[in-house]
Amino acid sequence: MASTYSPLLRFEVIGNGEQANTWGTTTDTNIGTLIEQSIAGMVTVDVTGDDHTLTSRNGASDEARQMMVNVTGTPGDVRSVFCPDGDTKVYVVVNNADDVVTFATVSGTGIAIPVGAAKFLYCDGVDV
Q1: Rounded distance, CA 109 to CA 128, Å?
Q2: Is the dihedral of CA 63, 54, 80, 50 positive or negative?
Q3: Edge-to-edge, what's the strand order for the sheet holding 68-72?
Q4: What band does 28 get if pLDDT is binned at 50, 70 and 90?
Q5: How far is CA 118 from CA 91, 94, 112, in A?
Q6: CA Rg, the chain, in Å?
Q7: Residues 6+ apart with CB under 8 A from 32
Q8: What is the DSSP string of the chain?
Q9: What's the whole-model pTM score?
Q10: How far is C-alpha 20 from the geometric centre of its chain's CA atoms?
């Protein structure tokens, strides 16, 4: 059975019989980096120039896995930060930008976060 990735947090699930005597590298990444990011990690995204879509990668560090999203920048207009469609996830979002920021999925609805506010948000895979 080939390795796969978990559907929500994109951890590598090692296939039976794979990575014999080397599975520690994958396990260390899953436990020591990716799980830590999903529980206590924080990413800062700058919305000065445009909206921002959180990166989402299998088995590697990314923005969408982080627990906290710190939004910064001087956009001069309302901006959006998009989390991945189809993924359920809880986020803490802090708006340190100088304008309102909407946190949403690309295809669904979102939540407007006022300047200076912090929100505890839930994405059901379609809407925030």
Answers
A1: 6
A2: positive
A3: 42-46, 68-72, 88-95, 118-124
A4: confident
A5: 10, 4, 11
A6: 16
A7: none
A8: ---EE-TTT--EEPPTTTTTTTHHHHHHHIIIIIIHHHHH-EEEEE-SSS-EE----TTS--STT-SEEEEE---SS-EEEEEPTT-EEEEEEEE-SSS-EEEEESSS-EEEE-TT-EEEEEEESS--
A9: 0.89
A10: 31
The two structure tokens encoding residue 38? 């999903």
pLDDT in tens, 78-119: 999 999 999 899 999 999 999 999 999 999 999 999 999 999
CA distance 78 to 72: 12
Tell me the pLDDT tens digit for each residue of 35-84: 999 999 999 999 999 999 999 999 899 999 999 999 999 999 999 999 99
b/e string for 88-119 if b means 16 or more Cβ within 10 A? ebebebbbebbbbbbbbbeeeebeebeeeeeb
